[in-house]
Design a protein that fits this description.
The chain is α/β, with parallel strands linked by helices and 342 residues long. The chain has a domain of 237 residues: Flavodoxin domain (Rossmann fold, 3-Layer(aba) Sandwich), CATH 3.40.50. The protein contains 13 helices and 10 strands. Helix 1 crosses helix 9, helix 4 runs parallel beside helix 10 and helix 9 packs across helix 13. The termini are far apart. The structure holds flavin mononucleotide (FMN) and iron/sulfur cluster (SF4) (2 copies).
């Protein structure tokens, strides 16, 4: 029997690091099978501010915010997907990907779930792709907090329109990075242990998914039911309510952009990192944030001095430290245990 070594590419975006971590688990499992697996972190590959401030494809609640309070100062309106698909023009910066990716057998596209959909930066990137003539097999992958809604259908729709052959979806709920901003304190160790448990679960799901992928290429029948059944059962009413609930919570309870001016070193990192271009400088050159924030937490996570918070309700509360830090805390703990036990 001839064993063909699959060449796989993982293209991903990660706001706070969880999807990046999931991509690394997928790569590990693929390499164990002898596949060659390359990764492309959009953040390292592209000048993100240029990509995502171009014509943002917005989340449901930012579209509603736009209706309530238009961003008069900015030259672009938000777009919904249908409009964006109709008006999408090829981006010359990534036009060469059609050739660069021609050698891959399989490409995975991964993103966090934001408001039941892929993150706007992933959507924008996919919209900007040329239409591929060679039908490369593609799958989507996501990390989320338990409700991924339309993510898979959304990715299937865009990827198919871009000429890929969509073959499946892989996802994992890990840890509640989005809720970190409203917790009183963030227990690194507790969350680190949870991450270790979830990682085992993730590896099992990845294994099942790769059995299915293997069957696609090597012709062994395998029935893959996906891990998205719970979401499918929840249905539209739940999504609708959740989406408006998020809108209410974010815009009424967390609304605001607080800054400890004495801690801000005016480095502009937050301005540079905001995926929606929503942070401006005030008259004294301190950052101020627009109403349409999608709470991706990047400005908080990137601020070197921890000077930012969302509102009085979230002031002095935790921010998400990212999986690498959490795993380190959990590993240090088990090391301490072992040292104690001699
Ligand atoms: C703006 C925003 C919207 C989110 N919407 C959802 C959602 O609809 N469903 C869900 O399960 N998780 C949601 N989450 C949680 C993220 O999907 C989750 O924390 C993810 O693992 C983050 O991945 P990252 O670290 O790669 O950015 C949301 C998070 C943010 C910041
Ligand atoms: S202001 Fe901060 S949290 Fe809001 S969209 Fe921009 S980077 Fe994300
Ligand atoms: S990233 Fe932090 S320190 Fe830098 S300008 Fe923004 S708030 Fe100030």
């Amino acid at each position: 029997m001839v064993i063909i070594m699959l060449k796989v590419l993982l293209v991903y975006f990660s706001g706070t690091g969880v999807t990046r971590y999931f991509a690394s688990l997928i790569r590990d499992e693929m390499e164990k099978r002898g596949y060659r697996c390359d990764s492309l972190n959009l953040e390292e590959y592209l000048d993100l501010p240029t990509l995502w401030q171009k014509k943002p494809v917005a989340l449901n609640y930012t579209i509603r915010a736009e209706v309530k309070r238009p961003l008069g100062k900015y030259p672009w309106p938000y777009q919904d997907l249908d409009t964006a698909l109709k008006t999408a023009a090829e981006n010359p910066v990534i036009a060469n990907l059609q050739q660069d990716w021609a050698g891959y057998d399989l490409i995975g596209f991964g993103s966090p779930v934001y408001s039941f959909r892929p993150a706007p930066v992933m959507i924008r990137f996919l919209l900007d792709l040329p239409v591929f003539k060679k039908k490369i097999r593609a799958f989507s992958f996501a990390t989320h907090d338990g409700a991924q809604g339309d993510f898979e259908d959304f990715m299937k729709n865009i990827l198919s329109r871009k000429g890929f052959k969509f073959v499946g979806h892989l996802d994992q709920s890990f840890i509640y990075s989005a809720s970190a901003i409203i917790r009183k304190s963030f227990d690194h160790l507790k969350t680190g242990r949870l991450l270790v448990r979830k990682s085992y679960q993730a590896r099992r799901n990845i294994f099942i998914f790769l059995e299915y992928i293997h069957s696609l290429f090597y012709g062994i029948p395998y029935w893959y039911k996906g891990t998205n059944l719970f979401d499918k059962l929840l249905g539209m009413p739940y999504r609708f309510l959740y989406s408006f609930g998020v809108d209410f919570l974010l815009n009424n309870l967390l609304f605001g952009y607080g800054i400890h001016k004495d801690e801000c070193i005016q480095c502009m990192t937050c301005v540079q990192q905001c995926p929606q271009g929503l942070i401006e400088l005030d008259d004294e050159d301190y950052p101020i944030r627009h109403y349409h924030c999608m709470y991706c937490l990047r400005c908080l996570n990137w601020c070197p001095t921890n000077a930012l918070y969302f509102s009085n309700l979230t002031k002095d509360k935790a921010r998400f430290p990212g999986p690498e830090v959490l795993l380190e805390a959990a590993m240090q703990d088990s090391l301490d245990d072992r040292l104690r036990d001699g």
